[in-house]
């Protein structure tokens, strides 16, 4: 059973370009979470999605950032018109469908390291 | 809102020394508590968890006890190895908040031979 798959592992963009980060959750997981880790800091929650629905986007910047989790295919975190401050590691996590969600740990991917030139 | 505070690093130890990383939390409800470990260039791996007061999570020689009275979840290991060198994150989640994780700032641990 493959783990959470994120791609690309590294992404370089110039200021003003768009960045698309992909996350395929573990099999049997329909809950997806995105987190951002700035250099030398902890992870900060961005958005929580469950198939085709955004459940909580309280951690998403109001502009330029969007996320989706379509019925088919991976979850996508999209950053438009990137700026230097968007440079960070972006992690995706998933948790299973069954059981008490409170007791289900989140499984993390290896992250996408975004660098803005 | 919820928050997690953990001791700042780096923590430098010799092999076989004892490790303690302090973690305290603030939560509006009754959270689940976690310790995650991050090795260089990788994502986070769940180390251990506890879901109710007085529960003790343990894994790979690491332990942490959920202390509701002191709102703490300190991580301990009696004898560390070089392979334990990593960044350790304390985190909480609340069902009312959709189980999103709130993380502490992380503690870098370096174990020297």
Overview features:
heterodimer, A: 117 residues, mainly beta, seven-stranded mixed beta sheet, 0% helix, B: 113 residues, six-stranded mixed beta sheet, four-stranded antiparallel beta sheet, 50% strand
Give a short synopsis of this structure.
The complex is a heterodimer of chains A (117) and B (113). Chain A is an all-beta fold and 117 residues long.
- The count of helical stretches of chain B stands at 0
Largest sheet geometry of chain B: 6 strands, mixed
Q: Please identify the oligomeric state.
A: heterodimer
Question: How many runs of DSSP E, i.e. beta strands of chain A?
Answer: 11
Write up this protein.
The complex is a heterodimer of chains A (117) and B (113). Chain A is mainly β and 117 residues long. Chain A contains no helices and eleven strands. In chain A, strands 2, 4, 5, 6, 9, 10 and 11 form a seven-stranded mixed β-sheet that branches. With 113 residues, chain B is mostly beta strands. Helix content of chain B is 0%, strand content 50%. Chain B has no helices and twelve strands. In chain B, the strands form three sheets. In chain B, strands 2, 5, 6, 10, 11 and 12 form a six-stranded mixed β-sheet that branches. Chain B has a four-stranded antiparallel β-sheet with strand order 3-9-8-7, with no helix packed on it. In chain B, strands 1-4 form a two-stranded antiparallel sheet. In chain B, 39% of the residues are buried. The model of chain B has no long low-confidence stretch (mean pLDDT 93). The interface between A and B is medium-sized, with 28 and 24 residues.
Give a topology summary:
The complex is a heterodimer of chains A (about 120) and B (about 110).
Chain A (H helix, E strand, L loop, with lengths): L4 E3 L2 E4 L5 E6 L4 E9 L5 E8 L2 E4 L8 E4 L6 E5 L8 E9 L10 E2 L3 E5 L1
Chain B lengths: L2 E4 L4 E4 L4 E3 L1 E4 L5 E7 L5 E7 L5 E4 L2 E4 L9 E3 L8 E8 L7 E3 L3 E6 L1
Parallel strand pairs in B: 2-12
Antiparallel strand pairs in B: 1-4, 3-9, 5-6, 5-10, 7-8, 8-9, 10-11, 10-12
């Amino acid at each position: 059973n493959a783990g959470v798959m994120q791609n690309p592992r590294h992404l370089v963009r110039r200021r003003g370009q768009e960045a698309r980060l992909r996350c395929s959750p573990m099999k049997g997981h329909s809950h997806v979470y995105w987190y951002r880790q700035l250099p030398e800091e902890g992870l900060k929650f961005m958005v929580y999605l469950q198939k085709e629905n955004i459940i909580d986007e309280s951690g998403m910047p109001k502009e330029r950032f969007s996320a989706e989790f379509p019925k088919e295919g991976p979850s996508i975190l999209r950053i438009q018109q990137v700026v230097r401050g968007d440079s960070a590691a972006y992690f995706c996590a998933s948790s299973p469908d069954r059981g008490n969600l409170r007791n289900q740990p989140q499984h993390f991917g290896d992250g996408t390291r975004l660098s803005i030139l | 809102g919820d928050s997690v505070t953990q001791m700042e690093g780096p923590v430098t130890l010799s092999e076989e020394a004892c490790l303690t990383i302090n973690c305290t939390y603030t939560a509006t409800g009754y959270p689940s508590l976690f310790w995650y470990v991050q090795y260089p260039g990788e994502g986070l791996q769940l180390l251990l968890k506890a879901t109710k007061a007085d529960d003790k999570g343990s894994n790979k020689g690491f332990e942490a006890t959920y202390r509701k009275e002191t709102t703490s979840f300190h991580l301990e290991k009696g004898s560390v190895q070089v392979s334990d060198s990593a960044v350790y994150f304390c985190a909480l989640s609340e069902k009312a908040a959709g189980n999103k994780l709130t993380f502490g700032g992380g503690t870098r641990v370096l174990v020297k031979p």
